[in-house]
Structures are given as C-alpha cells and as structure tokens.
Design the sequence.
C-alpha cells in the first residue's frame, strides 16, 4: 500500500508543473492587456505604460517571467494581485473556506440523495420511480445553473419566503471569523439565532450547486448497479437465499461503487466550475467569483495562483479517490 | 417553513436590537468589492464608495447631489493673481478616527495634506511604493506635472504652487484621489516596518469609520461621533456585497437592502410600481458618442460627417438600446454640467437631406466600419445593438458599414492608435468641469495621447478650450465653453448619441438620499426610519 501511495504522490509532481505552465501561459494568450484595462477610457501615456510594465515585470521576456514565478512559488510566494495589491495567498485563504463549506455541503447532498436514488431506480428498473429519477436527473443536468439559481431565489426566497435571498449570514450578525466556516463560527459566536441564519443561507446555494453532481451520480449509480445486478455472483447470493437488502447493499453496491467514486471525484472539478456561477448569484464570498473577476481584469497573478491552488485541491481529491479504490477493490493496490 | 424563517428573522432582529438599542442601520447592497481602502491607489467607483465617500474627506468637496465645489477640510481658499498659487485655509478641530491600532494625538493639519499629496507625487516618498504604488488618477489628471510644490505656510495653511495656470485644478482637488490621510498614523506605522498596514486599516476624518471588511461579503461602518460636520444620522452603515442585479432587487423586495445601485433595465417598471420602493432617477454625467476618424480621407469633408449624423435615428437607439433610460445628446457635455449650451441645434434626423448632402460632397458607394465596444458601460448599455441600428440607418442612405469589435483592452488600444473609421465610445465625468470632457476628449493634445478618438484638431475649438483653462472666472469660462460647443456642432467630429439616465431604487424608509452626478453612492446626510 505504501508503494502505491508513493507512486500516486509521485505522479502529482509533473501534473503540478504542467498546471503552472498552463496557468501561466494560457492567461497570457488571452487578448487584452491588464495595464490598458486598468487605465480604461482614460488611456495611458507611453511613459506611464512603460513604468507600469516594469513595475509588474511585464517588460521581461515571458520565459524569464515564468522562471521568476516558479522561483516565487517554491518560496511560497504566489504573487500579488494587480488590482487589490494584496498577496494572492492571503486573498485565497480568506475566501476559500466559503467555497469549501458550500462545496462540501453540496457534495454531501449530491451523494446522500444521488446514490440511494440510483440504487432504487436500478432495483426497480422500469417502474415509475425509475422513470421519475432518470427524468429529474436529466432535467437537473440540463438546467443552466444561473437560471436555476435565479428561479430558486424567486420561488423559495421571493414567493414562499422560506430562505434568505443571498449571502452567508444575515448582515445583522457580526463576529470575527475563527475557522472561516460560517456554520462553525456562528456556533462559536454564541449569538442567538446566528447558526440558524447561517444554515438557512446555505440551503439554497448548496442545493443549486448539488443539482448537477446529484444528477450525474444518480445516473452513474443506476447504470453501474444494473450491470452488477446481472452478474453471476449476485444471482448466486440470491440463490443462497440472502435477503434482498443484503444482496443489493453488500454484494452489488460495493462493486458498483468503483465507477461511482470515480464520478464523485470528477464532480469536484465540476463543483468548482458550478461554484463560479452559484457564488456570483448568491453573493457567496468564495474563490469562484474571485477568479471570474480576475480573469475579466486580466489580473494575471490571481488567475495563475487561483488556478494552481484549485488544481492542487482537485489533484488532492483525486488522490484520495485513487486511494479509496484501493480500499474498495484490493486488486487495484497491487497493479 | 415560512413561519420558521420569520421566527428566525425576528429572533435575529431582536438580538440585534437588544445589543444596539435603537441604532439606525442602513444596508446598501453594493455591486462589488472595493479594490482597497486608499482611494489614491485605485480607479473604480465601487472603491470610492467604500473609501473616499465614507472614511475620508478632501480639502474641497463636491456638494452632495451636485457638481458644485464646496469647502471640505479647507474652510476657504485664495488664488493668486497669476493663477499659479492656491492657498488653502484648513479647518480647525478636525479629528481623525481612533482605531484599535491608532489613537490620534493631534487634530488634522497641513502635514496631513502634504503627506497625502507627496505620497503620490514624490517617487522617493517612503509610502510612494507601498501597496503597489500606482496613482492612476493623480497621473491621469496630470497632477504630477501640474503641481510644482506644496508649501506648509503654517499648521492651518497650505499652499499649492502650480507650473501652469489650470482653472480645473480646484475641481480636481475634490476628486477621490485627493482624500486626506493621517500623517501621524503613517509615521507610527513606518516605525513598525509593515507599511502595507496603512492601506489595509484606513484612518480618515470622514463621517463613517471602518469596522470590518470581509472580502466579497460585507463592509461594516459606524458613524464617527466626532465628525467635524456633525455625526451622521444613521449609526451603522452596512455594504452587503451583491454582484447580481436581479438578486439585489430580490433582496430589496425581501427588505434585506435599503438602497441598491445599477438595477436591471427590465426591472425598472416593476420597481416603479412597488409601493415600498422610491425609484429615483437623474441624468448621468456622461456622454455616449460615435467618433469619426478625421485623419481618414473619407471623413475630412464636414458634409460627410454631417450627412452621417443626419442619417442616425437617435430615438430608435434610445428606445432599443437605452429602453427609456437615456436622453438624446447634442453636445459633448451632459445637460447637468455648467456651461451646457442649450441653444445648440442638434442635427435633425433626415435621411433624404443626408443623401443629398453626400451627393453634394461627391460621395457614392461609401464603405466604412463601425467599431462596437465589447462591454457594457454606463453611457452605452449595448454597443453591438447600437452599431447594428446605425449600420441600418447608414445603409438607407447608401453607406455600407461593417461592424468590428475587439476585446476591451485591445479595443481601447487600437482605437487610441486611430485604426478605426468610426468608433463607439463614451465618457463619464471625473470632476464636473467641462474641461474634463472637451479638452480631454477633443483637445489637440489628446490626438497624440489617444483619448481624442476623432483624431480631430480644430484650431478655433482648441484655442477656446485653452483660454478657458487659463482663466478662473466662471462666467468667462462659461462663455468660452458655450462658444466651443457651437464650433463642435458645426464641425461634427462626433455623432453625439446619448446621455444615460441613472436609476436608483431606494426603500421608502430612507430619507434624503440624493443621486450623485458622478455615479457615487454617498450616505452622509441620509436618514432612515426605524
């Protein structure tokens, strides 16, 4: 097992270098000069332009800039935002807990609802339940997030008044963040009603963000289960007279889980993409919105740093997924 | 569930009320996060709302809701005979905010003024390079070359010596970059060596004091009890950062916001009909235009420019692009600005006359292009649509125009270099001075620097502007600018399209809110019913 872990971690190094390359060069390939964007309609004199080019290091050859960037990275320096003039690292960690909290709750919702729905749909194949789950999954998967989010706000916050419109907690509550996770911080704050407020603010965005992963997980679970349920060993288990719940839960599901776990791992990347829209619409102060703003402003350092850190998170999750395979299916460890 | 939410909201409110007995709180659903809290370092209006309009003051200020310059931290000022020296007499007894890091030992004085300007002007100033050290507005308004020296006459008097006569100087001094920070606080921080702290934990003399900022979420202020103008009527000011306009409106309806900026045009009608919303509106200090590149042969004949102007159906543009939130423009400055010449007659919409004029000029089968901005701006909500309408109008008089667009930075760069035939662009005023529109956008100097997208240098027009720059007599300047507008209309370097109307939905609980002509959002002087 140790050798397996070492091999998987070793593979992260070239991936990391690859991501730095992509992050660094792709943003520079986009048309648009960050200094001109900063100046806007006002324009900028040639001298001032040269001064700023020098100040941001853009007057050096791109390869030298990349070298400086890499050197900085190895010293823990992710650079400084051209817009806010604050270290990228500080900004990322101020915003990341909000994204993590939202994504975590969303993936939990997606798994807790998606897997059982997929299993039941497979077991009751061809039933009304099966058709309903698969149709809902298709609708959930096809709905544009921004539209679904606005619709949810209009219906649940506007008409029904079940949930607040946006934000992480009512602005009436104020406490210093301790962990950055609002549910925990609101409990720690000891302010009456703070936790309930934080919870009610989390409901709508997490459901919206969970929608696509939930649909994908439900469909994947159903198809994996259908395949496994037709296997000989499942028939044997049934023939032995085992209870149906045990056959489905212990024999079939465990084997069906491998592709499902892969899907869940891949959905973490999808969550990041979904978080960008969900965060913007629900005024959720996470890294999704931060990245979008930075791309439109061509804030190179933030885009590079943010992409790199998001990629590292996704790599980490996929590493965990790989290790989980080993637990679910011992044969994988020895390959 | 509905009951549960309401019960929770009631508990929350009760908890707050019990801790802040009868405090008046105003929630402003702002459109984005500030770049930082030192106005001199940044250029975005969102940043100025969160810093210079709350935390800081300037020596002179714009009167709330107008472009008039009124005393701020300077009670009065004198201008020397030659127009080169401005002496400011500073207000006494002005306090700086006390924060957890800083307790001021003295009142505001001339040292603070010198510090605030020299940080921007002097590259060797200890704070010049702090927080990135770029001062776009200070440089953009040519203050670095304009200010020769700043002299402390005594603790309460400071003199600015200029290199040349520049009448708009006093209006520039009311701009956000001219906010005054504490030199004492800067000196205290300098001792710690962590100079960035100065910009992160701001200390000013303004009506509100920063309490906390959570990026992309919320900014909290409390009223500064010792404010020299008297404590603000609201006790707590909260900026709830809400980037999406539809969501801001939903929050407004749910009572989670008291004021919101930049509503969606599609929501305007519903807002107007909502009994809980007071939908305020005012013409913005801006102009959207189409500039003809006068360096290209095809536009050198004024009859061609006039003909193209006469072919444009502005009313159709106002209806389709501005959806009622715009007013046809005839001058290069907006009607709310002093010296606006209302006697100027706009070119009439007359395709037949336009065709004849083109024939007279000997032009047939003209081919050109229309550059359309890729972004939405206050003066042009949809440039692509506008370009399509103009394209159709021109087609009707036999002019074929191709629509061209680039990424925004590229667009600005290429149009500045004069690669276009005609280009859609616009401008929002910085300081309420006509010079800030006419000289910046149409002066001969601006052909070289790029801001003059018409590449039009007219000696008669330029002389009037230069004269107006060199006199501080407002009546005289008004006459000169009025005359300049007549020349502008006669020569038609632009098709003036529209001035947009700014809508501001405000809760009916909010009293005395005024729309800022510069597009800012200002809460000192505003009250709210409990």
Sequence:
């Amino acid at each position: 097992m140790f050798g397996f872990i070492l091999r998987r971690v070793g593979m992260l190094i070239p991936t990391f270098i690859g991501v730095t390359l992509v992050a660094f060069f792709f943003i520079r390939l986009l048309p648009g000069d960050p200094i001109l964007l900063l100046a806007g309609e006002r324009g900028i004199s040639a001298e001032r332009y040269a001064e700023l080019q020098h100040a941001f290091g853009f007057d050096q050859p791109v390869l030298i800039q990349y070298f400086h960037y890499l050197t900085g990275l190895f010293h823990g320096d992710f650079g400084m935002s051209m817009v806010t003039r604050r270290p990228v690292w500080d900004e990322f960690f101020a915003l990341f807990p909000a994204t993590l909290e939202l994504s975590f709750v969303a993936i939990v919702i997606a798994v807790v609802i998606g897997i059982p729905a997929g299993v039941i749909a497979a077991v009751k194949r061809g039933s009304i339940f099966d058709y309903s789950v698969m149709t809902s999954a298709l609708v959930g998967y096809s709905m544009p997030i921004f539209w679904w989010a606005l619709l949810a706000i209009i219906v649940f916050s506007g008409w029904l008044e079940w949930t607040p419109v946006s934000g992480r907690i009512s602005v009436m509550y104020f406490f210093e963040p301790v962990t950055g996770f609002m549910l925990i911080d609101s409990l720690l704050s000891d302010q009456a009603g703070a936790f309930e407020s934080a919870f009610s603010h989390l409901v709508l965005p997490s459901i919206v963000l969970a929608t696509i992963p939930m649909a994908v997980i439900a469909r994947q679970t159903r198809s994996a289960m259908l395949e496994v349920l037709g296997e000989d060993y499942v028939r044997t288990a049934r023939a032995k007279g085992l209870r149906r719940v045990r056959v489905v839960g212990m024999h079939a599901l465990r084997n069906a889980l491998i592709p499902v776990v892969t899907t869940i791992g891949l959905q973490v990347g999808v969550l990041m993409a979904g978080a960008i829209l969900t965060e913007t619409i629900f005024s959720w102060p996470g890294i999704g919105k931060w990245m979008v703003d930075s791309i439109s402003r061509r804030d190179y350092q933030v885009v590079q740093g943010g992409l790199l850190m998001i990629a590292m998170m996704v790599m980490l999750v996929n590493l965990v997924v790989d290790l989980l395979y080993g637990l679910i299916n011992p044969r994988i460890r020895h390959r | 569930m509905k009951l549960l939410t309401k019960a929770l909201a009631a508990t929350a409110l009760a908890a707050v009320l019990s801790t802040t007995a009868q405090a008046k709180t105003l929630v402003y659903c702002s459109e984005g996060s500030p770049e930082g809290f030192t106005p001199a370092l940044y250029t975005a209006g969102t940043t100025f709302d969160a810093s210079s309009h709350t935390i800081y003051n300037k020596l002179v200020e714009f009167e709330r809701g107008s472009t008039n310059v009124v005393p701020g931290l300077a009670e009065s000022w004198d201008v020397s005979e030659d127009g080169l020296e401005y002496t400011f007499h500073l207000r006494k007894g002005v306090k700086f905010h006390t924060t957890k890091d800083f307790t001021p030992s003295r009142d505001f004085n001339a040292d603070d003024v010198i510090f605030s300007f020299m940080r921007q002007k002097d590259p060797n100033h200890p704070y010049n390079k702090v927080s990135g050290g770029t001062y776009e507005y200070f440089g953009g308004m040519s203050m670095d070359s304009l200010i020769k020296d700043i002299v402390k006459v005594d603790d309460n008097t400071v003199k600015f010596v200029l290199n040349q006569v520049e009448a708009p100087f006093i209006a520039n001094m009311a701009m956000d970059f001219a906010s005054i920070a504490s030199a004492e606080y800067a000196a205290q921080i300098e001792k710690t060596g962590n100079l960035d702290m100065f910009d992160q934990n701001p200390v000013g003399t303004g009506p509100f004091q920063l309490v906390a900022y959570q990026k992309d979420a919320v900014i909290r202020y409390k009223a500064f009890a010792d404010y020299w103008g008297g404590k603000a009527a609201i006790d707590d000011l909260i900026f709830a950062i809400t980037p999406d306009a539809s969501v801001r409106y939903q929050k407004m309806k749910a009572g989670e916001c008291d004021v919101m900026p930049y509503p969606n045009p599609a929501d305007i009608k519903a807002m107007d009909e909502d009994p809980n919303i007071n939908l305020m509106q005012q013409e913005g200090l801006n102009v959207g235009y189409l500039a003809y590149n006068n360096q290209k042969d095809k536009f050198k004949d004024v009859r061609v420019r006039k003909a193209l102007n006469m072919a444009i159906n502005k009313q159709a543009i106002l209806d389709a692009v501005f959806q009622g939130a715009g007013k046809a423009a005839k001058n290069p400055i907006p009607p709310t600005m002093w010296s606006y010449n209302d006697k100027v007659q706009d070119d009439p919409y007359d395709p037949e006359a336009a065709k004849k004029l083109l024939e007279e000029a000997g032009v047939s089968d003209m081919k050109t292009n229309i550059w359309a901005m890729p972004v939405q701006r206050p003066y042009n909500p949809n440039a692509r649509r506008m370009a399509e309408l103009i394209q159709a109008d021109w087609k009707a008089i036999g002019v074929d125009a191709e629509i061209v667009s680039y990424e925004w930075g590229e667009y600005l760069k290429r149009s500045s270099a004069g690669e276009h035939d005609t280009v859609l662009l616009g401008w929002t005023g910085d300081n309420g001075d006509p010079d800030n529109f006419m000289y910046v956008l149409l002066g001969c100097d601006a052909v070289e620097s790029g801001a003059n997208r018409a590449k039009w240098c007219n000696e008669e027009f330029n002389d009037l502007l230069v004269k107006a720059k060199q006199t501080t007599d407002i009546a005289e300047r008004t006459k000169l600018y009025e005359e300049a507008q007549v020349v502008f209309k006669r020569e038609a370097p632009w098709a003036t399209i529209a001035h947009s109307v700014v809508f501001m939905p405000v809760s009916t609980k909010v009293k005395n809110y005024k729309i800022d002509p510069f597009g800012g959002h200002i809460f000192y002087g505003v009250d709210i019913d409990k």
